[in-house]
Amino acid sequence: MTTSVWVTVPATTANIGPGFDCLGAALTLYNRFRFNLLDQAPGDVAIEVQGLDAGRVVTDRSNLAYKAFASYFHRRGLVVPAVAIAIDLDVPLARGLGSSSTAIVGGLLGANALCEDPLDLAALVEMAIAIEGHPDNVVPALVGGCQLAVANDSGSPTLCPIPWHKEIVPVVAIPDFELSTVAARQVLPSTYSRADAIFNAAHLGLLLRGLAMGRGDWLQAAMGDRIHQPYRQTLIPGYDTVARAAADTGAYGLVISGAGPTLLALAPAQKAPQVCNAMATAWQQVGQSVKTRVLALETQGASVSPVAIA
Predict the structure, then answer these.
(1) pLDDT one-digit tens code per residue, 128-160
(2) Are residues 153 and 175 in the same domain?
(3) Alpha carbon distance 70, 57 (integer Å)
(4) DSSP code per residue over 55-92
(5) 147 and 177 part of one domain
(6) pTM as predicted
(7) Are 24 and 2 in contact (CB under 8 A)?
(8) What is the rounded distance in angstroms from the CA atom of residue 66 to the CA atom of residue 110?
(9) What percent of the chain has pLDDT over 90?
(10) Are 136 and 36 in the same domain?
(11) How many CB atoms are located within 10 Å of the residue 174 CB?
C-alpha cells in the first residue's frame, strides 16, 4: 500500500472574460502537497505549511486540503486515516488564481493515490466540483489546459478541452491586496437582460475560436463581458490604468482573473515581456504594490508522484 505521495497542482485563471463560471485555464504556477499516512488514531492530522502566505493558512481540520482529503473517504464510506500533510505554496491566497482549487484537488488526489487510485478522473472531477461549487477552476487544475465545463440536466459535467494557440501568452499582474470570492459575487446583479446574455454568448464563441486560431484581432473583440467584469472592476483600484498600459504595449486584451484582483492579459509571445513590465509600472504609478509574471498554459494538470524513501 502507498503510504506517502506528493501532489503538484497548478494555479488557474477562470472566466477569461465572457466565460463566467464555465471557462478556465491552468497556468505554470504551482502548490505542492505531501500526504503521509500515520500509524495513529483515525482522524488524527498534522499539517505544516511553508512558502507564500504560509502563516495565514490554518493547520487544523478546517484546512481546505485536509477537508477535501477527508471528504474523499466520507464519500466512499471509509474511515479517514491519520495523515500528516506538508504544503508548499507558490500560488497567492485570495487573488483569483485558484488557490482554493489547488487545495481541493490536492486533497482529493492525495487520498485517491493513498488508496491505490480506485476512482477515475470523471469521479474525481465530480467530487471536486461538489466541494468547490463550480467547475471553472477545479477542472483545469485537475486535467490541465484550457477547459470549458458544461453542466448537463442531470447535473453531471461535460468537459470540453479548448485549443490554446502557442503564440498566445498569459501575463498576470498580482496586486498586494486581496479580494474574496464572496465579496466579488455580492456585487453581481441577480438578473441580466436578454441583450447582455446574447452579448456574452457571442463573445464566448469568438473567444474560443480566437484562442484556438491565435487570432489576435478576434481576441481583441472577444474579451468583453457584461456578466461580472463591469461590476467587479469597481473593487479593483487601478484597473483602467493597467488595462490601458497592457493594450498600449500590444496585449490583445485584459480581464479579471477569476474573482480578482489579479489581472490577466493575453499577449503575443514576442510582446509578453513588454506587457508584463507595463502592467507593473502602471499599477505602481497609482500607488499599488504588484508582482507581474509571464506564464504559460500548463497542459498536464495536477500530478501525483510517490515520495522517495532515503
Answers:
(1) 999 998 899 999 999 999 999 988 777 778 999
(2) no
(3) 18
(4) GGS--STT-HHHHHHHHHHHHTT-PPPPEEEEEEE-SP
(5) no
(6) 0.94
(7) no
(8) 10
(9) 88
(10) yes
(11) 21
